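Fold this sequence, please.
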Amino acid sequence: MNFVECHEEPIHIPGYIQSFGYLIGIDAESHSITFFSKNIEDIFNIESPEKLFDKKLTEFPEVFKTVIDSDIYRSLPNFTRRENETFFDKIFIGDKQYHLSAFRSKSNIFLEFEKVLVNPHKQISNKYDNFYIVDNDQEIWDLLLNTLSKIVNYDRMMVYKFMMDGSGKVVAEKTNDNLESYLGLHYPESDIPIQARELYLKKRKRIFSNVHSEPVPLLSKNLESIDLTYSTSRGMSPIHGQYIKNSGASSSFSISIIIDDYLWGLVTCQNSQPKHIDLEDRVQAGIFTALASNAYSSFKSKNELNYRLKLNEKSAHLKTEFLKYNSLLDSLTENKAEIRDFLEADGLAVIAEEKIVTEGSTPDVATIEKITQWAHQYTEDSIYLSRSFLKDHGKELGLDERAAGVVIYFVERSKNNVLIWFRREFDEHIDWAGNPEKKIEVIYQDGQEKQMVSPRTSFKIFTEDIKGNSKRWSSRNIAALQAVRDLILETSHKNYNTIKRLNDELKKVNEELDSFSYTISHDLGTPLTVMKLNAQMLLKTLADPSEKSRNKINSIIEEIDSMAEMMHDVLQLSRAKHSEIQLESLETYQTIEKIIENAKITFGTPASEVVIKECPEVLADKTMLHQAFLNIINNAIKYSSQQENPKVEIEGTEDGDMVIYRISDNGIGIPKENKHKMFKIFNRMDNAKKFKGNGVGLSIVHRIMRRIGGSVDYESSPNGTSFILTFKKP
């Protein structure tokens, strides 16, 4: 008897398709017909379908006339070089309109047909940037489901996140009021096994219109060679079909959430009744999902950047503290609380110079010695990490709840210099959608008796209590550990060569990053310009564009302008660091006056009152001086533009050997909680989101003022803001 695991099921070559689709396969070189779905005779007037084999569509001009005349078929030799490069068209077959999709997979070109459905209830917005102005990741997924519900409107719509072990969790949900909520429930890895996850990376939208309908077989002389990976109508696996039925659904629709080329999760939709979604609506849903995925990636990247900046600040402070002591043991023990907190641990053990010093909640010294001996014997790398240390080694080492999770770092293995971070046992409860244990059933397939994993028949909440684990060590904890490791290397006088190597590597990385930012900002200018020109030409060439079409094209143009502005600002930031500077005595009045004139036009504020008082000369670089004033004055006029009587005041005063310029406005002000990050790149205040911007300008000013020997600071209240630029006197 054969046993078939879920991950062994060949779901990409089922040999049949779903009933909503019609499929014809032709050889990529000869264009002769190699396979087709049995139901094509339902839409094409074919007397003997078997006569199609090894013939071309052009040999049946009356039957396939609209297909042959389509732009897709005419251009077959040109677009079929890359796999899954799909092209779409609409054609009439008889008196009905069909979507025609064409793509290449291996040696075959697939021509896939499905009826065009009109969705009279579809309501979507052209505000594609809504995903980028929300405050947290949960809002991104909730907004996505609300948006998709206006397009596909299934009974249950979920965002399903894959966990590290392949299992999944519902992190967002939108349902009809009469359905039980699945929010927060976990699903075992076998629900979406590895080969299914691989297919979701390749084919990012998957619909099962009616799980109760009979599949349509493919007819071919070599059926096993037909890979349906990229086919929209690919048939369901029997296990998955039964799974959907057991859940009480009759139709499902899934969209892959891809983040950094990784399958982060799925949008999973279920409907109690059979339901088909038109191809155009599925494509639209895929676009919105991609936008939400990009917004989530951007949100996480910004958070990660902020965390790294804070970690760098903490590392710099700790480095100062380390250097106060003459030995490694003293540096570690005198800063043990900070080192413990770096990894958000409950306890820390410092083993050095044959001593053990502890901080926080740790096992006793004898147990720590056992753990250290175990690590010497059973680990080879300098770092060992586990959240299940109590569960895996509790009995042999005599551990208790204080050592459920550990991070062991060998500072110097030969001298037994070790750091061990501890986390206490975490009472973990996982709510599963049904009992996750696999059940086996016997089926007969192709005359053979097989054992297969049976899909769950119940999705009633099943709570699993997990003992012996700590909370997970996150990627941020690993970054913090690396920071501690680097800090120890940097502050050890015996590691001069290592320090030099690390510094050289850091310098090289920084140079590469600056080069990248300059290149990407500069080189993307041309394609952005082409895109904008094409959009503008499209707007002009439309014979009689509707207001909706005009708004959409104008929205595209606005987004291109925003991208171009961001690229320009990043380019200016790079130039502010590397450009050659020439300090000279410069007058400022004409520069300031011209910037004000342009700013009023840019921000549409001709009524803004701008008062220019004394403008003493400063020692600066001409280009950089203009850039600094440009960013500060533009901000002042922009952020005061919505006041009843917008006003900006500019005044320079001499103070000893310095010249201080104060640019004041009566705008929205800067919240106190934003002060620590005002000059960091891509930072935007919460109260400034209604104004256009990207958070680069103040970073440019900060870098410029430092390069020319000056400084920038600000004072703010709810009634306005004053930026203070300090220059050297000529």
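The CA atoms of residues 275 and 284 lie 17 Å apart. Confidence is low (pLDDT under 50) at residues 1-8, 493-497.
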